[in-house]
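Structure in, sequence out. Go:
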């Protein structure tokens, strides 16, 4: 492997580690999004291949699936917020008079 290729591979590896760290931070800040952290770990654990190019393709497919999942969640949240837009309601005061 050429030196330039090794450097590029190391650079890409560092970027992947940064992405994983960001995903971890998201699940720490928003526990409900922890599913994406677990999904990422499972997908990357199941990466298959003998050659580095095969493993890279499998990893790329994993991140593509993760991206699709986050886009679906984003659309669902946007749709839900459109359905349940909060509106201000004027307070209603009920006055009861005791008639004795």
């Amino acid at each position: 492997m050429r030196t330039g290729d090794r450097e590029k591979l190391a650079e890409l590896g560092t970027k992947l580690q940064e992405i994983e760290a960001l995903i971890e931070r998201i699940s720490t800040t928003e526990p409900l999004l922890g599913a994406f952290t677990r999904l990422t770990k499972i997908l990357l654990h199941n990466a298959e291949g003998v050659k580095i190019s095969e493993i890279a393709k499998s990893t790329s497919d994993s991140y593509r699936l993760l991206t699709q999942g986050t886009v679906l969640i984003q659309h669902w949240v946007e749709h839900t917020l459109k359905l349940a837009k909060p509106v201000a309601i004027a307070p209603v005061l009920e006055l009861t008079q005791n008639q004795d």
